[in-house]
Amino acid sequence: MDRPEIREAYGAYYGEVSHAKGESLGREIVRRASPRLFLKDRLRMLDLGAGTGEFSQGIATALLSEFYGPLDLHLVDRSDGALSHAVNAPRDPRLFISVSRATLPDERPFLPGSFDIVTMANCLAENEHRDESFADLLEEVSNTLRPGGIMLLVEPADKRSSRALLSLGDLLLSRHFPLTLLAPCPGGRVAPCPALAHSDDWCHEDRPADFSETLLKTAESLGHIKDALKMTYLLFGLEGTPLPPSLRLVSPLHKGKGFFSGDFCDGNNWWRIRLLNRNRSDLTRSFTRLHRGETIGTPLVLPLRSGSPRDRRGAMDWPKELPVIRLAHPDGQPFDREAGR
């Protein structure tokens, strides 16, 4: 990132996507965090591995739509050029940026300090096999959070990066980590993550999104399809409300011969659930409209069926008399109860 031509090329393609990811997750912070986070006169945010700053700028955009005081944003990166780019980029006049040059996870010139929001994106993807070191860093940083504080960790949606983040989350939760997992896992999951039970599984977001014509043309020329925000994330908080007990669709919804099926997570286990065509009714029809990341109400009893396509998981057929109640969109926005059924 120290070479201007690389920064320009990166920003032209990934900058818009990073900003959109930050803005989407920033809205989720607003939705999930303790209300007293936004009662403060001034917010302090730390972004670890900030790069050229588009991701944290996206988060700031969402925060400043709800918070009317100033936001102090401290960016940490190993590239002086990237930090200089971030400082000189246009921004909201209420956003005040400072920087530290550091190679993470070993250098920590930004400590001691105190922060309301800590974010880290794409660091594990660039630092393989450093889970323990990043866990040490984040555990230390978590102790700097002020009341109502939030920590957001994000990685790309590929299998290796996603599993690295989920493993890091388990490592943090197994320690004396002061934060609670607020999202995306249902039921305030502690550990271990069920996606890690088998080596070919991982869990990621695939949120529909709109991008500029310029970006879409560039993506097309590269053979890429840009129609969604793809990422894996964990949102922790000192306070705040974890997701209630529910089932979260963690795969695409598949249409087979005579049924729809998907993999769902309740925070402790993955379930292969299918809706047979003969069980479609006014109560269950919304099952066929589900998208990855949406949550539905959890039945009191999950009736297991044998002969699952994936026998290593619990599996069930959804009964026709049991209503499918859509609780929330992938970003946690509740469904309108009447429209969501």
UniProtKB/TrEMBL annotation:
Superkingdom, natural source: Bacteria
One GO molecular-function entry: methyltransferase activity
Domain annotation Methyltransferase: ranges: 46-149
SUPFAM superfamilies tied to this protein: S-adenosyl-L-methionine-dependent methyltransferases
GO biological process: methylation
Extent of the signal sequence: none
Gene3D superfamilies listed in its UniProt record: Vaccinia Virus protein VP39
Keyword Transferase recorded: yes
Protein name: Methyltransferase type 12
Native source organism of the sequence: Leptospirillum ferrodiazotrophum
Organism taxonomic ancestry: Bacteria, Pseudomonadati, Nitrospirota, Nitrospiria, Nitrospirales
